[in-house]
Automatic annotation (TrEMBL):
Protein name per Swiss-Prot or TrEMBL: Putative hydrolase of the HAD superfamily
Record carries keyword Protein biosynthesis: no
Entry keyword set: Hydrolase, Magnesium
Pfam families: Hydrolase
Amino acid sequence: MTLEAITFDLDDTLWDNRGVMARTEQGHYAWLDAALADAAEGPAGRFAERFPLEAFVARRQALAAAHPPRRGDFTWLRYRALAELLAEHGLAAEPANHWADRAMERFMALRHEVEPHPEVETLLEALGRRYRLASITNGNVEVTRLPLGRHFPVAIAAGELLAPKPDPRPFLLALSRLGSHPARALHVGDAWEEDALPARRLGMQAAWIGPDDRPMPPGIHRLAHVRELPELVRWLEAQA
Ligand SMILES: [Mg+2]
């Protein structure tokens, strides 16, 4: 096949995200709790005692259920949930929004402390010389804030488009911005339902980074790790 474009999922594809999310989730919430306790104008009682982390998670889930189009816009869900809990804790609207903003700044700073797999920089550098590259994420990492962002002339935040994967629109938008076409493109990602299947349905090739070795349907290629991608790319190029 003629391969022109490669699109990449980010979380758990280019780096291991589990540790990052746990640190970020606990870190920014603990920061908010401590900052409120330090602020003289804060209401009495500890915020995180009244609303432990589980209450924040539950509020985000309730907001996502109440606002289906926003279900993939995690930044919006987090901000709204924080602002609501802060208001219920006794803050007026303006300080509640202010502290929700500050906590989100902290969240985003921690969220971007990702460590790409060591092979990723060289891999993107080499692929970027030959192919047009894009990132497509449902998460809230802004790839332009990371050093490896320079390899992606196109970066799609699918949740903020209100069309999270498996919606086909973020894939089609990425390919149209790259001036390519599904039949000449490969998508790389770790989620079966959100990366491999929707890419395949559009006629893209799909590289699925997954743990098991069950037989793959035609057009979906299993990789144990993103470092195996160059070999797959060479193989695809060699197919008629
Ligand atoms: Mg992923």
